[in-house]
Amino acid sequence: MAEPLISVKDLRVAFGGASGPIEVVRGISFDLGREKLGIVGESGSGKSLTGRSIMRLLPAGARLSASRIAFAGEDLQKASERRMEEIRGRGIGFIMQDPKYSLNPVVTVGEQIAEAYRLHVKASAATARERAIAMLRTVQIRDPERVFGMYPHEMSGGMGQRIMIAMMLVAEPQALIADEPTSALDVTVRLEILALLDDLVATRGLGLIFISHDLNLVRRFCDRVLIMYRGRVVEELAAGDLGQATHPYTRGLLEALPRIHARRPRLPTMQRDPNW
Question: What is the pTM of this model?
Answer without folding.
Answer: 0.90
